[in-house]
Amino acid sequence: MRVAVVGAGVVGLSTTAELLRRGVDVVCHERAGGPMAQRSAGSSRIFRLAHPTPDLVRLAQAAREGFGRWEQASHTAMIAPGGCVISGDQVPGWAAAMAAAGAAHEIVDGRSGRLRLPARRPPSAALVDPSGGVIDVDAVRAHLIEVTSGAVVQDHVYALEDTPTGATVWSSAGTARFDAVLLTAGAGTSPLAAQVGIYTPPALAHHVRFTFPVDPAVSWQCWIDKPSAGLATYQHRSGPGRWAVGGSIDPGQVAWEAGRDAATAASRDAVLRYAREHLAVEPRVVDTLYCVTTPGLADGFEFRRHGAILAVSGENLFKFAPLLGEVLAEACTGGSTPAVADLARR
């Protein structure tokens, strides 16, 4: 069997690695920039079991087991523990979802010693996810590049055709036939999927994360804060003496038509102002990480198929990567279309 994976982000590489493990002939096409250079770029991500639904909590638990297998295979730690704190109006619902999935958690008062946050004024209450931590993106990247060596090619896929016996892929390298095609191309998924009648959310937006210098000795927890008023943020350690902050600003300021430069400037102003007023960090930006997002998807993912071609779309997929690799490899070889609810009951 021959499978084409379009997109060498973390999900595309995870699937390629699992297909190779199963003995499948697979080619992973990456347009430019090298593996994990677009939405999977950067050095760190938050890992958490905390999610708004029991199904997503269960899937995060399965993904954590997958990271454990990667850690064992590479002899490298990939998730630094420390916990993740959730604050805001969603705390009761997220706590209920964790309870339903049997995941350890605790709701604590903002003055509790269980909270280690950079906040000048801590939240009144918070959900503590003790299994949360920081994903070492560099370690994940190194492992996946090693195990997919030889299967990844720099090649721009620009057209697809579903056929009765598989699919045809047109790329800068020429034309090739495959038994199955998986689209994990981030912002490039929607236009390719549309060629074969698969709908994926087409809207795009700009998102920028900023890093501030802090005392290297601090051991703050990852923090997702969604207050009823003010800037919603996610925050975590991104290296020794470095604290990363991303904020959800006015959608109009980061809409695709606003342009990257304007969206970056607006995001920087909002996050820098927030850091000055609310965080115990040095209010000086030392690093900027830009990516393209699909507004409205939040956590989670969707799968859609037309014949031999399967497309996956979603946001915040990095923490699910080991699980998605296994699920998508099985779908490619078996011709199935996964469903989140079914996966959570496996």
From TrEMBL:
InterPro entries: FAD-dep_OxRdtase (IPR006076), FAD/NAD-bd_sf (IPR036188), MTOX (IPR045170). SUPFAM superfamilies: FAD/NAD(P)-binding domain (SSF51905). Its cofactor is FAD. Residues 2-330 form the FAD dependent oxidoreductase domain. Pfam families: DAO. Keywords: FAD, Flavoprotein, Oxidoreductase. The keyword Methyltransferase does not apply. PANTHER family: PEROXISOMAL SARCOSINE OXIDASE. This is FAD-dependent oxidoreductase. It comes from Pseudonocardia xinjiangensis.
